[in-house]
Task: structure prediction
Amino acid sequence: MKKTNKKYCLLFLIFLILVGFLIWIYYHNNFVNRKVTNQRQKKDPEIADQIKQQNQNNLKEQDKQAQKPLKQTKRSKNNDVGPNKKADNFTWPIDQPKKRITKKEFAQYITRENSPIENERFRGFHTGVDLEVFNQEIDQPTQVQACCTGKLVYKGWINGYGGVVVQSCEWQDQSILILYGHVKLTSVKKSKNDLVKQGEFIAFLGQDKSQETDQERKHLHLGIIKGEKIDFRGYVQQESELKAWYDPVKIIGYG
Ligand SMILES: [Zn+2]
Result:
């Protein structure tokens, strides 16, 4: 009996130890969980602080960026002036314009009597400028290049010019038309509505005193018409009518 009691006592002790161990595990786990939670709670404010800090930084950044567009708007306005200025910065269709505009200037009143051209057949105020060719160019192909970037709106044969090409461009937010007169039509590769870029080849000048120039000397008549309606007139009879054109020298300048 004594031995049996001892066995029971031992078993009971083991049982108690096990129970105690389980209880310890249970409380220990609780304790660890609480500790972790506490740590999280401790950390959370830190994270919250960090987020707060980040938000503040973001706000500061947003403020900076909110200010930036203002500056950029100012800058882009300036930039707008840049490209516009560039777009407005037309170029001459043939080089050395100053040396070429020697016979007929814009608004010059031409008569048979005062004309620098022999056997003048026109009379009136000149609506454009005439760019002459140099002697050595008479028999050489002479390229005409676009003054600006814009669509080709007309190409055809017009009495008094021979071949004519008209290009639509913008100048200072206004629609204008560039008329290139006395050109060789068969050399015009672009079609109506094709975009012609500034400096791009448009045509060769028509051959001297040929059908290509309607029997005129080899030269380029350059007209700049205000608006979008083509006015083919190279001369007007009233000076006041000239207001429908711009002086190419004033638009393009001599640089
Ligand atoms: Zn002319």
